[in-house]
Design brief:
single chain, globular, binds adenosine-5'-diphosphate, binds magnesium ion
């Protein structure tokens, strides 16, 4: 399992930041790392803002501009929380973010990424329905026939972007409409706090007087019954008064398991729209947009090479652009094919290097909401057996462990059991497209 970041304390968050720094160290020249990132320190987490302090304003700005996207990617990866936003600040400057908050307002403070707007979202066949659904919800807030709107798709394909685009749009067009935007992990955390502190009615009030609710990554609630029940009631209350609800997930409602049947059917009752990995043309258009946003120009062959190499994940596409821009500036090299090939192979290389049998087991157990010990254990129920066989399959494919070594990870099974498992997964993938999709999704997360 992922570490339980929902109960993260300051020490653990400092530790999380240290892990991000270690990962960044692998990607940067030692002198670059020493000058810009080594002197940084985690300060606090404030409504999804992961605040890190730097010795001065200049270093903070430089670090954010050049390494921000990469560090954020690590933050998301290591914490499993895709809502975290990195804020780089100087130790001496006053807390600007705080003073910008509305002092008296019923509008709950919500941080939205400025660039996650409809304008900066590239449409293509892979995201057509989700885009149209989101835009329609934003334009016809409260009267849209797509209620709830449920957007699902793999990591880094633009779910959060589209969801925040709705909020940006409404903020602009109807500033007095109130909403909550949060990840389902945040919702869980609020719920637990409310239970522990006996503040249920305060918690309920937070969801009473809003015009719309945006909840990101609801797959995280799989297997968490108490909070599912709570969401069911909040959902009904809002829905009953015609309030818009938008949800995202990495898989369709019926594949979030275990999830209460009544929630599955609520989630399915509006528009369920998927986002697929973009085709080449869309990837190229996204790439051109990201390069423009950086204020750069990449040669055509470079754009083509990147769009052809990075296929499954837009966040990676963006990561590469930022990394290339930073590398080129720091080393004072032009952006050409040589630099591109080096950056891409380093980027993908470090991603694979991090994979170990243990990290694979922990991702698979997270994905299927079962414990690593069940995964390794003897139980032969299908819900456990298939994930176990998938783990073996992925360890074989993504690490250089031998069959015997893999067997020893799974409570001392022998190599022939491992081989059978791998063959069985190969076979099942041919028969069941949904299993194949799950496998690819896990692989995509692992290599993210
Ligand atoms: P998800 O929530 O699906 O994991 P995000 O919404 O966080 O993914 O998107 C990852 C990154 O890719 C973001 O920076 C987002 O702006 C960018 N992105 C994804 N799809 C598109 C798109 N179609 N057009 C422009 N940017 C995109
Ligand atoms: Mg997301």
């Amino acid at each position: 399992m992922y570490h339980d970041w929902t109960a993260m304390n300051t020490t653990e968050m400092s530790f999380l930041w240290q892990r991000c720094l270690e990962a960044a160290k692998l990607k940067l020249e030692p002198s670059t790392f020493r000058s810009w990132l080594a002197p940084s320190e985690f300060e606090s987490l404030d409504e999804g803002m992961f605040i890190v302090r730097f010795p001065n304003e200049f270093t903070a700005k430089f670090a954010k501009a050049h390494f921000g996207p990469m560090l954020e990617e690590f933050l998301h990866e290591f914490s499993g929380r895709s809502d975290l936003v990195l804020s780089c600040r100087s130790i001496r400057t006053p807390d600007r973010h705080k003073s910008e908050r509305p002092s008296v307002s019923t509008q709950p403070y919500v941080y939205l990424r400025p660039s996650y707007t409809f304008d900066l979202f590239v449409q293509g066949p892979s995201n057509e329905l989700a885009y149209a659904g989101a835009l329609s919800v934003a334009r016809e807030l409260g009267t849209s026939k797509y209620n709830p709107l449920f957007i699902y798709g793999g990591v880094g394909l633009g779910k959060t972007h589209l969801m925040q685009a709705i909020a940006h749009y409404v903020r602009e067009a109807q500033p007095n409409r109130t909403f909550r935007y949060l990840s389902s992990e945040e919702f869980l955390r609020q719920y637990i706090n409310a239970v522990l502190n006996k503040r249920m009615s305060a918690f309920h009030n937070m969801y009473k007087d809003i015009d719309f609710l945006l909840m990101d990554d609801v797959q995280f609630l799989a297997g968490k019954e108490g909070v599912q029940e709570e969401l069911f009631h909040r959902f009904n209350e809002l829905y009953q008064y015609g309030k818009q609800i938008v949800l995202t997930s990495d898989r369709p409602p019926h594949e979030i398991e275990p999830l209460e049947e009544r929630l599955v059917s609520r989630f399915q009752s509006g528009l369920v729209a998927d986002i697929q990995p973009p085709q080449y043309e869309t990837r190229l258009a996204i790439l051109e947009l990201k390069v423009r946003e950086e204020g750069l120009v990449f040669p055509k062959d470079v754009l083509d090479y990147i769009a052809s190499s990075i296929k499954n994940n837009v966040r990676q596409l963006e990561g590469i652009v930022h990394l290339m821009a930073a590398t080129s500036r720091i080393q004072n090299n032009p952006i050409d094919m040589e630099l591109t090939k080096k950056v891409i192979s380093d980027y993908l290389g470090t991603q694979f290097k991090r994979l170990t049998p243990l990290s694979i087991i922990s991702h698979v157990s997270e994905y299927f909401s079962i414990s690593p010990s069940q995964l390794k254990g003897k139980l032969r129920k299908r819900e456990v057996l298939i994930p176990r066989q998938i783990s073996m399959y992925l360890i074989r494919e993504l690490t250089d462990s031998s069959l015997a070594e893999i067997g020893s990870f799974f409570d001392g099974r022998d190599h022939s059991t491992v081989l059978n498992s791998i063959e069985r997964i190969n076979q099942l993938c041919k028969e069941e497209p949904s299993l194949k999709r799950k496998l690819n999704e896990i692989k995509n997360r692992l290599t993210n």
